[in-house]
Design goal:
This protein has about 290 residues and is α/β, with parallel strands linked by helices. It has one domain: Ribokinase (UDP-N-acetylmuramoyl-L-alanine:D-glutamate ligase, 3-Layer(aba) Sandwich). It is about 30% helix and about 25% strand. The protein has a nine-stranded mixed sheet with strand order 5-4-1-8-9-10-11-12-13, with helices on both faces. It has a four-stranded mixed sheet with strand order 3-2-6-7. Helix 7 runs antiparallel to helix 8. The chain starts with a strand and ends with a helix. The structure holds adenosine-5'-diphosphate (ADP) and sodium ion (NA). The site of sodium ion has 3 residues, from helix 7. Homodimer.
Length: about 290
């Protein structure tokens, strides 16, 4: 089947600095590293690297052609990525010697995707396909609704947390994925915990402590292997992409979670976002 991911595509500009600049301070960076990021792109890469047939729905500017090329190189179908006047979404990441960071995200074309393009693309989906989205684009609630009507299974990674988006999308979601912080934000915003939402499956990720899958009133804990973290950027995105690809293959959730846990642990040992997401062969061979 196919995984349709409506999501952001960002150019990550990572500036290594002796410390995070204070208000009013001017500071020279030691180095600049550029890579592919954005939660949407990361998840598409993870789905594809895990072996899932993945179609990304999104938009870039003329400055972002390299990002579509790179998505394609990682196995993502980019036919539904539009080029708009731009600029593309990007992130300015200040990273200090202690690995603390401050991030400015400019959504750019990620929030300008024409709704008619999204709807027309989803018209090509078939019942049993998967639909995935996050909170970094536009038109997600409507797209989730239309995907559901077409018989797709709807997965929603509620990140970055947005109370309005969550309220609008949850009624159309089958699977919700969120980290601990987002689970707490959900509680604050709705008064409901992840288990009280009436969804068939909820997965809460717990960083180095692994994850918990909530299903039918049951809690299944999945521990994470112990690794030495180098960069946790995109850990959750890698995990989500691998879970979706596993489900798309028809694997039971515990199997999908086991491989996703390995892939995400391997990701945190590598610097970078989408470019650092392991292939399936690497994830399967990883025994820390
Ligand atoms: P996010 O990246 O969205 O903040 P988490 O930090 O919860 O999400 O990480 C997602 C998943 O990545 C975790 O459930 C776990 O499987 C894996 N992971 C994250 N950090 C580590 C770590 N330090 N060691 C091993 N696995 C990790
Ligand atoms: Na993380």
């Amino acid at each position: 089947m196919t995984i349709w991911n409506l999501g952001s595509i960002n150019a990550d500009h990572v500036y290594a600095l002796p410390h995070i600049p204070a208000p009013g301070e001017t500071l020279a960076a030691r180095s600049l590293t550029q890579g592919l990021g954005g939660k949407g792109a990361n998840m598409s890469v993870a789905c594809a690297r895990a072996g899932g047939k993945t179609k990304h729905i999104g938009a870039i500017g003329p400055d972002g052609a390299w990002m579509a090329d790179r998505l394609r190189a990682y196995g993502v179908d980019t036919a539904a990525i539009l080029t708009l006047p731009g600029p593309s979404g990007h992130a300015i990441i200040a990273l200090d010697d202690r690995a603390e960071n401050t991030i400015i995200v400019f959504p750019g074309t990620n929030r300008q995707i024409p709704p008619a393009h999204i709807d027309a693309t989803l018209a090509g989906a078939a019942p049993g396909d998967l639909f995935l989205t996050q909170n970094e684009t536009n038109h997600q609630p409507e797209a989730a609704f239309s995907a559901r009507l077409r018989g797709l299974r709807v997965a929603y990674a509620a990140a970055p947390f947005d109370a309005g988006a969550v309220r609008a999308i949850l009624p159309h979601a089958d699977l919700l994925l969120l980290n601990e912080v987002e689970a707490e934000q959900l509680r604050q915003a709705t008064g409901q915990g992840p288990a009280d939402l009436g969804l068939s499956d909820v997965i809460v990720t717990l960083g180095a402590r692994g994850s918990v899958w909530l299903q039918g009133g049951q809690e299944h804990r999945v521990p994470a292997p112990r690794v030495t973290p180098v960069d946790t950027t995109g850990a959750g995105d890698t995990f989500t992409g691998y879970v979706l690809a596993g489900l798309d293959e028809g694997r039971p959730m515990p199997d999908a979670l086991a491989l996703a846990t390995r892939a995400a642990a391997l990701k945190v040992t590598r610097p970078g976002a989408a470019d650092a997401i392991p292939t399936r062969a690497e994830a399967e061979a990883f025994h820390p």
